[in-house]
Amino acid sequence: MKRLLLLLFFVVMFVTLSDRSVYADENLTIDGLENFNNKEFPIKTDLSKINFTEGLTLYDFEGDEFNLSNLLVDYSKVNINKHGTYNIDYYFLDSDNNKHVLETINIKMIDSIAPQASVKEILLNLNQQVDLKNYISVSDDSGLPVNVEYITNVDVTKVGFYFVNYIVSDAGGNYTTVKTKVIVSNYVEIDHEAPTFSHIREEITISQGHDETKALEIYKSGVQAYDGEVEITDQIEVVTNNVDRFNVGFYIITYYVSDAAGNVSVANTKVIVVDDDVDYPVIIGPHQVDITINTTPNFRNFVTAMDEICGDLTDEITFQNNVDLNNFGEYYITYQVEDYSGNQAEKSIRVVVKDNVKPTITVPNTLQVNIGSDLDLKTHIKVTDNYDQEIDYIYDASKLNLTTVGTYVITVQAIDQAGNIENEMFFVNVYDDSRPDVLYEDPIILGSLVAAGVSLVVILVSSIFSKSRRRRYR
Ligand SMILES: [Ca+2]
Ligand SMILES: [Ca+2]
Ligand SMILES: [Ca+2]
Ligand SMILES: [Ca+2]
Fold it and tell me: pTM of the entire structure?
């Protein structure tokens, strides 16, 4: 029964309203809108909490008051964040839910709070191209972007102090100005930070007698150095003069490293010299050496010595020498060397003292002999030897004909007792002093004259060429 009554009530209401709405569509008037037209609201105002019908009166065509609750307000075109003037519509809905706008008025959203802006001192490198707008921080109560303009006297092409003045404005025309200094410089960051060591080994062990270069490598392998992020391990210097590599003990070494700006760092670490070398050195040399009799070689020069730990031990080599340098024979030299841990090496070399030097034959270049003369060739040939007091030689003069003008070759061969052979040759030129012109038929003399002439021509030609070439390229 109650439900039926409620339904009846709604039907009655609907019929009544629809009649009156259609009826009112062209005839309703609103009174009091001037209170809202051009009304200003601060931005961010929640318009849903504003009663836009407060104080209004709605009349029908007959001038009777009409129920105000039928009057609706559309303010959906208003951006409450943005300063500006916006339309709002007063309307009602007919029975078909069609919107009927009765009046449109303006309201204004007012941004009255200036933006906030801050800027720090600006450091620029010479010729650095920048947008100065990127250096300022801004915000506005509207939450909307603001307008940034600036005035500046900055010239990035010249080192100097400048100013920039920013003007930051919002849509409401509120503005803030901020000013800052601009420094244009040949800015080079000065390095005040000393380098740092890392991975320093607490102690480093080296073997007694360790080679200096190798020991240094070991010391350096015990540390790294950085300047900031940059590794500068290869710049480390090691001061080792406290270390006695030849004596077992504890020592301190000092690492130094400096960066490019000259900041220095120093660190120490312990070095322990131990006697732990068990490997023998090696003596390197030939199996046999031939020595010329009556000479005095340096037997040291025949061998070198190396040790895995101690490096080059050549200077430490000792040897026994019973070689008789004045007598032919076969001898042995025994070389010995010891590393700093007492590991010994020995090597014997056979030394043969012998005559291994050829005789020396001294002859003239060319003998000039008048036709028909006697000639004792032996008086022109001298043969000596490093060892033999007397030495045999043979010569071949079989082609020589002293009765015929011409040039003849004489060959000489000498052999010492040890069997070393030397060969030599010279010319005998048989001339006829009653016919000096014949001299020029001598093929050797003629040949050398031609050769001299050719080389003269070559010199002349090449000097002409080099002159003309120089001129051309100058
Ligand atoms: Ca503002
Ligand atoms: Ca540094
Ligand atoms: Ca050794
Ligand atoms: Ca000889």
Answer: 0.47
